[in-house]
Every structure is written in C-alpha cells, then in structure tokens.
Design a protein that fits this description.
single chain; alpha/beta; Rossmann fold; six-stranded mixed β-sheet
Length: 244
Amino acid sequence: MAMKDRPEERGNQTSAAFRFAVAGLASISTICLGASQAFSCSLALVLAMDGSASVDAREHRLQLNGLADALSDTDVVQAIEAVGGIWINSFEWSGRYQQLQQLNWQFLNDGASAATASETLRKTPRGFTEFPTAIGYALGYASVQMRQAPRPCARKVIDVAGDGINNDGFGPESAYNAFDFQGITVNGLVIAGPNTIPARYYESFVIRGPGAFVEIATDYDDYARAIKRKLLREIYGNGYAALR
C-alpha cells in the first residue's frame, strides 16, 4: 500500500527518485529486453477506470484528465522511451455489462504517440452514470482485452482504479477462476477518501501476481499524482517500485 505521507511530499519524493533512477533503470531495461528477444515489447498495459454511480461528473473528469496528463508527462514519456515503448489499452467500467472502450490498443514509444493517446482519452465521453460496481466483470473484460494485445510483451499488467468494493455480480475471485490470467499482474489504484475499506478490499481480493501493489489516491484531486506514480512503477517494473 502507498506510504501515508502528505501528497506534496510524495510528489517530491517521486520526482527525486525518478531523476536519480532514470539512467540506471534504463540500462536495466535494456539488458532485460536484450534477454527477451522473443517479445515484441516490454509491457502490455490494460487500464480499467471506475465509471460507477459513486463517481460524479467532476470526479470522472479528474480521472480522465489525470490519466491523460500522466501519459503525456515528461517523466512518463521518458520511462516509455527508456523501455523501448509499451502497448496500452484503456476502458471505463461500472456494472456487469457496462464497459466502454476509451483507448483501443496503441503502441506508445515517444512524446508524439503519448500525446495522441492523451488527446483521445480527453475526448472520450462518459459511458455510464447509474450502474453499480462490478469489479469481477471489469476484471473479466480486462482479461479478454489483454489476450487481444497485438504483440507479445515481456510483462502483462492490468491496472484497476476504483473508489469502492464489488457490489454487483461475481467478485474478483470468481473472475480469476473463470478467465485466463496466466502471466498477468493485476494492480489497483484506490481513491480512498475517509473510507479505508476499499483499500483493504483491493489488497485482499483485487491485486494479483508477482509484484502486485495498490497505489492510494487520498481523493479524486490526488488522482493525477497517484496515476503518474503508478504508471512509472508499472512501466519500469520492480526496479522502480524498490525506490519507494
């Protein structure tokens, strides 16, 4: 779970750690990629954004713009370039059958491709406003998306963001039993607020796989900081996570 220090302190620590680590992690990534020539890319990433009824219009916009800002952020672009590019896919989820594709599979390898993805996200209208929180179904949909990735990648990561626990349909455990998650790591981003239950739920039931983690946004205004840090951790893998 993310550290409990203040958001501005976390931002400063993240920036300092990033500047310190870029050169070394880029070298590590190059070595790893050299040893994994069977793969066409370092990372395939599926992003699942909460669009359930608990998320109001302002909060949804903070999520969408926060992700768009993070993808085009200089630090994130530098990370993408350092690992040789990543494949990315993003969708909004809420109820059992409410999943809206925001960003179909795109390959990001520089500032221009990241900017294009960011603009696509910003222009995506919200799909749903009145449905509950079906995390199990979101995970199932994400698994299907991952299996449709255009190229084989060394790492496969699903990134689930939300502010609540499953309250519609089957839960995460059933999704993991019913769908193919072999070789996939599932991480969580919890928008916590004063309620600690969602973070504990994600820790216990949602995250899965080697190195899986939960990133905490203190509220929706903190989402942009949290998703940037999360993307950096996911792009670089455990090497960046060790610098927490």
